[in-house]
Amino acid sequence: MAHIRLPDGLQGIRAAMAFRPETAKPLNELAEALLHAPNSLTAGERELIATYVSSLNDCYFCQTVHGAIAAAHLAGDEDLVRRVKVDFGQAAISDKLKTLLVIAGRVQKGGKNVTSADVEAARKAGATDVEIHDTVLIAAAFCMYNRYVDGLDTWQPHDEELYRQRGKKTAKEGYVSMSQEYIPQQKQEQGA
Amino acid sequence: MPHISLPEQLPGISSALAFRPETAKPLRELAHILLHEPNSLSPGERELIATYVSSLNDCYFCQTSHGAAAACHLGDGDTVKQVYANFEEAPISEKLKRLLVIAGQVQRGGKNVTRQAVDAAREQGATDVEIHDTVLIAAAFCMYNRYVDGLATWQPRDEHLYAQMGAHLAREGYQTPSVRP
What we know:
The structure holds two protein chains of two kinds. Chain A is mostly helical. Chain A is built from eleven helices and no strands. Chain A is 70% helix and 0% strand. In chain B, helix 1 (13-19) crosses helix 2 (21-36). Chains A and B meet through helix 2, helix 6 and helix 8 of A and helix 2, helix 6 and helix 8 of B.
């Protein structure tokens, strides 16, 4: 049971967001800007960064739903998503993304762990300043989302098919549009 | 020197927000709602939670600027120092002490929050929204702190600058920049 009385029947962050639509609005807009809006990093690459950080933080809901969104962007390649979580150095992803995942892992342990050598390596592999910025902020933001989801002890059913279907839909529609499914709209407007 | 080319003369998160306005907007709005908008927890109490978590994450810029904002709201800088040294002995309410315990657990990881800590907060009168907001403030500062330090932003050691920023934040909130180039 969750630590506070959250709306019934909603999984993970959805329950917390429906409970407090005022904060749900910027939380969804941040995810939209970081993961779904056009970017020189593909949506699949950005979702892999989010999935990797969520797995380091051991957040079942976030790593499963973002893993499913990543797979949906990557032509359904769930095996690639698993490999990135287990040992991204050996995964079939670009060298640039590997160097960005190193930076994301450092941020997960704490901001001061990011070294100039890590950033240089990413730059040598072709990463731009915006890509490095976005990697740091995606990793930092998932250190928030993961703590939010687990810190309230939200309901996180283990149901792969549920996450797979939701992943496909979120990959297509994005976070702000999907939030209309579970956030009371009138309340959201009042909070805005 | 920052890891990427950030606008000069802007300290801490201000430079990162100016670098990427698309993400700055929701980041500002989230802080504004959590720390500044009307709430049954006072802005001073919420700034103390933010300051405490930032000190656990050892983020100089965030703990100093939010500490200055808390001091402005409370009219007292000593309480802020006592909260990071040992909040159990600080002149704050029992309810806030129990919420700071939850915030510290969130800082170490969401799964660390115990039923016992939540019950203790509730016994001191904390509502579900107050517990929710404490968890989200603590989680959000695990983001803001990592953002500020992960980019190695410029964080001048200048108490006067932070006092000015704190006064601006306490008065205006987070929707507009607290420092200008």
